[in-house]
Structures are given as structure tokens and as C-alpha cells.
Specification:
The protein has 8 helices and 4 strands; from the N terminus they run βααβααβααβαα. By secondary structure, it is α+β, with helices and mostly antiparallel strands. The protein has one domain: Alpha-Beta Plaits. The longest helix is centred in the N-terminal third of the chain and has 11 residues. Bound molecules: inosine-5'-diphosphate and magnesium ion.
């Protein structure tokens, strides 16, 4: 069996306002990923700038931090085999217009700046960094899902 790993996912303010939290959580649950942390919160500007620090020099940075702080988000940690890459595949491309139907962004978005969901990228350390920015260790819960023997060989 390949490594189980954890990834950071966030329903962005547009996804919350459009009532898509349940739909997005369901997709990951149905896939067999395990929810190990969740938090309904609103980012302040410092948190937003730190979360998106890699984009600080991009022309869209201020719009991005304004948007992500504009309303509540639902932040989560999901665990499973190859979780970081599998969540990215389920999200689709950064631009919803380029995202295949069946992906979250391909099913629920049209515009690059309103792409509904965030998920850690596959670069080494990204997921861990993002998880730590939102969750303390004791906010992540270790447990077995009852279907795990049926999800993994
Ligand atoms: P990702 O969310 O697919 O990882 P990133 O390149 O990390 O994409 O960009 C972070 C977020 O910034 C995107 O989800 C999108 O909302 C926004 N963004 C990315 N590129 C652009 C752009 O060229 N114009 C406006 N917003 C952008
Ligand atoms: Mg990214």
C-alpha cells in the first residue's frame, strides 16, 4: 500500500455562500478519504497573506487576499492514500473554464477568481505548511473509519 498522507482543503467564500460545503465534503467522503479536521472560520489579512505567500509578487495577490478574507471558509484536513494528488485531481484545474466536468471546479465554477475550493499542491511540504497554519496537532483527530479494510488492500 502506498503512503497515507494528509492534505489541506478549504471551501472558499464563494463555495460557502453558494451552499456547496456539503457537496464538496460528500465527494471526498464518498471517495474514501477520511476527514481528520474541520473548522468554519474567517481568515484575517495576515493569515490570508501567509497562506498565499507564494503568490505575493503576482498581480492578482491583493484581489486574492481580499476575496479569501471576504467571508467565512470551511477549512479541512483529509487523509488517505496519495491524498494530496488525488484531491488536486478531484478539484480540476486552477481555472474552472479549463476544468473537466466531473471535477469540483469543472462542475461548480466558471471564473478563475471564483474557483470554489482550495487544495494543497503536490510540492513537497506544501500540505504540511498549510495544515499547520490552520490547525493545531490536537485539532487533528486520529481514528479508523469503519470501511478502511474495504478501501485498502
Ligand atoms: P490553485 O488554487 O489551483 O493551487 P494557484 O496558482 O495556487 O492555484 O493560485 C491560487 C489562487 O489564486 C487560485 O485558486 C485562483 O483563485 C487565484 N488565481 C490564480 N491565478 C490567477 C490569475 O491569473 N488571476 C486571478 N486569480 C488567479
Ligand atoms: Mg495553489
Amino acid at each position: 500500500m502506498a503512503d497515507r498522507e494528509r492534505t489541506f482543503v478549504m471551501v472558499k467564500p464563494d463555495g460557502v455562500q453558494r451552499g456547496l460545503i456539503g457537496e464538496i465534503v460528500s465527494r471526498f467522503e464518498d471517495r474514501g478519504l477520511k476527514l481528520v479536521a474541520g473548522k468554519f472560520t474567517r481568515l484575517d489579512d495576515d493569515h490570508a497573506r501567509e497562506h498565499y505567500a507564494e503568490h505575493v509578487d503576482k498581480p492578482f495577490f491583493d484581489d486574492l487576499t481580499d476575496f479569501i478574507t471576504s467571508g467565512p471558509v470551511f477549512a479541512m484536513v483529509w487523509e488517505g492514500q496519495d491524498a494530496v494528488a488525488q484531491v488536486r485531481r478531484m478539484m480540476g484545474e486552477t481555472d474552472p473554464a479549463e476544468s473537466a466536468p466531473g471535477t469540483i471546479r469543472g462542475d461548480y465554477g466558471l471564473d478563475l477568481g471564483r474557483n470554489v475550493v482550495h487544495g494543497s499542491d503536490t510540492e513537497e511540504g506544501s500540505a504540511q505548511r498549510e495544515i499547520e497554519l490552520f490547525f493545531d496537532d490536537d485539532e487533528q483527530v486520529d481514528y479508523e473509519r469503519i470501511d478502511e479494510p474495504w478501501l485498502y488492500e
